[in-house]
Amino acid sequence: MTRPVKSGEETATAMYRSVADQLARGTPPETVEANLIGQGRDEDTVRLLVTEVLDEMPDTLRARYTWQMYSSLGMFGVALLMALGISFLSLLGAPITFKGILRTWVAALLWMSGSGYWIVVIIWKIRLARRLDGMRTAWLRGGDRRPVPQPEGIAKKSPHLPAVSRRAPTDDNSRLARAAIDARESERLRWTGLLVGGSVLLLLVCSGCVVVPGLIALSRLRQHSDESSPSASALKKEINPNAPDPNEGPPPRGWMVLFRSDDPSIWNTDSPGKNFALPVRRAHSKIRYLHLKRLDTGEMLIVPITHRQLTLDERTDSFPGHWWNGTARQEWGARHLGIPQVPSSSGYEKGLIGVTHDSDRVYSGSGFGWKIRVDDKQYYSWQGREIPRTVFEVAVTADPLTEEERRWFTGPDPPDDPPPGDWTILFRSNDPSVWNTFRTGELFAIPVSRAHAAIRYLRLTRLDTGEALILPITRKQLAREDRPNPARGYWWNGSGVVEYNSRHLGIVQIPPAPARVRGLIGVTGDGFNAFVGSGFGGKCLVDDGTCCCWRGQEIPKTTFEIAVTTAPLVEDEKRWLVE
Fold first, then answer.
1. pTM for the full model?
2. ω into residue 4 within 30 of 0, thus cis?
3. Contact partners, residue 283, CB within 8 Å, separation at least 6
4. Which among 415, 411, 428 has a CA at the least distance from the CA of 563?
5. Predicted local distance difference test score (pLDDT) of residue 423
6. Least C-beta-crowded within 10 Å: which of 127, 134, 199, 388?
7. What is Dmax (Cα atoms) for the chain?
8. 560 with 429: CB under 8 angstroms?
């Protein structure tokens, strides 16, 4: 086979790359010149190329790697300051856990090791630029190395090579120089960078193993020492004014009342008398439960709590149905304080009482809130329904709950309790608004968090016909809609969300239908399509209230039962299984 003849431009590019490659390896310019002339290259062309490469490569290296050096040094410094800063904050008594310090140090060490490796690589590149500067100076001092640029003469002497101008385009030469430099990044450089980066990482890990435990120990000693340093105590209060007393002693027995009033503005204040309140810092750090009690009826709700959560609005995945909002923030003409719950609304349903909200949802619940799209005064609610003005009591305890108190507990059973062997009924009603509440009688419901952590299946039953649908599920999914992406098969919508003047609760199925189909009952939707199914939903383009449906078809108002189980399905139940 005949080898294809290279064009003049390809030959010049190959020569430039060869010269740059050899110089990047540290080969003296005289040796490069001798090697190429020995291969039959034109002497003037070779000298011109060597001179141009020596002129271009140092500037290319500096322009490319100087700003990278500054950015790598900046990243290294930020990571180091982050690790040292959180350690010193802990030393000064800031409420930072050991896990938080450890995670910050691990992230900082990984960041610093990566930055250290690139700093070593960049230093090598910049040193190469300096070495090439020296080679260029020696090359020019070694004699008349700059030939008179006579492109046509050079082309005549070497008809197989193209004419080479005195100054080739900078962009092309810079690109070729970078390619040659990157191509010759030797294995020795890689191992050097890895060795230095590993050494830095090992040094920082060893330092962290000594510094971090030492700072934690000093912090704990500081907490248990006498108040010999008023400045440290003042700084701690400034960082977290709601932190408990470090000299609090054992937790008190029974319930400690923090609030008893119909005025939420006194929450977390020192207010004796009829409108009673205490600062939350007076609560013990080991508290486990919080109760919200209606003093007009004696009803109460109990949620799991930590001291840190007393002034927060923090919904956790562990207890998805109810949580505590202790912010008492002032918005829309009212303060928000109490126990929010699922279901939520879109924020456009006028008249509902909201206890908290996130970016696009409003959550009702029990306590103090505002009336959506009215926003005129303070309102009061209990389990999602408006009630007259009443006095609420908020109390906390570190004791275990009694059997009577467990009746009002919205959290799960203790983890060591054995799972029930049969179906646990969470809901039996024709009114989806009681979902995830305490209700007795014909409208029966209990909070979804009372389901066992190991549940495997959910059953939706029509009590008028006895038909059922069974779906695999976890407790985390009970009070939300975990829609598969892409949407397929069946899934559970436990959000109970209020939209278009109706509540949406049940088992969703595909295919979806356009939301513009009038009269179609959607159990959920995505703004463009309505997903039909079984349970409660709303009629598209009608919006006249909650309707009932079964397998995509409207049915008369009926009572549905929702139950969960941890046991495997029996043969008779498997016929209702959908996935």
1. 0.58
2. no
3. 244, 256, 258, 307, 310, 396
4. 428
5. 95
6. 388
7. 109
8. yes
